[in-house]
Design brief:
Blueprint (H helix, E strand, L loop, with lengths): L2 E11 L4 E11 L3 E6 L5 H8 L5 E8 L2 E2 L8 H6 L1 E4 L11 H11 L5 H14 L15 H12 L6 E5 L7 H18 L2 E5 L3 H6 L3 E6 L2 E4 L1
Length: 222
């Protein structure tokens, strides 16, 4: 199994100062990894470092073949093509349809063949059971449906890793369970690694994986 995310003795910054010292983390293809910890202990800062939103302060970090310490701004879009990111608040473009949201991502990551784009959009909507919602606007969808579209968006480019930051935080228990089952199916069937930030320990009990905990300016596997 090849390593898709690797940090060695890495200091993680929030943008204002270092929040995690000496991070050592290795994520391989198909892994299910959780990051847990109290609010403000650096969980989201680690995510932002993985997606090259925050600079690596010290140490080494490699994500999907890219060296974070040597990242040039023009390389960032290519790195993000290899990542799928799912946020707690969905972050859909509210002024355009579901189909247009997905098309926007494809165009911004280098797709330009209309037929190929239409085919890929149909495939990902079917994968998340949203094939009838292509022409809906986000405000016409429930929270759970919006998160399914966000997951469809995340898998458009067949990413090596899905980064999920509290993906069920704004959902009721039943809807959240459906989203978790969808993510686990993608992990199992497609072999896509998942790194999930969560404060909900019951998720880990139901869907066991490796667990890293942030506390006292460190992040270690428990």
């Amino acid at each position: 199994m090849s390593t898709v995310i690797g940090f060695k003795d890495a200091d993680i910054t929030s943008g204002e100062g270092i929040v995690v010292y000496g991070l050592n983390m290795e994520v391989s293809e198909g892994d299910l990894v959780y990051i847990v910890g109290k609010v403000g202990t650096g969980k989201t800062s680690i995510i932002r470092t993985i997606i090259a939103e925050n600079k690596l302060a010290k140490g080494s970090g490699h994500v999907c073949g890219y060296d974070l310490a040597k990242m040039r701004s023009r390389d960032v879009p290519m790195l993000r093509r290899k990542l799928g990111v799912v946020f707690q608040d969905f972050q859909l473009l509210m002024d355009r349809s579901v189909e247009s949201n997905l098309e926007f991502v494809l165009k911004s990551t280098g797709w330009n063949d209309r037929e190929a784009m239409d085919k890929r959009i149909s495939e990902v909507l079917e994968a998340v059971d949203m094939q009838t919602k292509a022409h809906k606007m986000p405000h016409q969808l429930s929270g759970g449906e919006q998160q399914r579209i966000a997951i469809a968006r995340a898998i458009l480019n067949s990413p090596e890793v899905i980064i999920a930051d509290e993906p069920t935080g704004n959902l009721d228990a039943e809807t959240a369970e459906g989203i978790l089952q969808l993510l686990m199916r993608i992990n199992r069937e497609q072999g896509t690694a998942i790194v999930m930030v969560t404060h909900n320990r019951s998720i880990i009990d139901r869907y066991p994986g490796r667990v890293f905990e942030t506390r006292n300016e460190t992040c270690t596997e428990i």
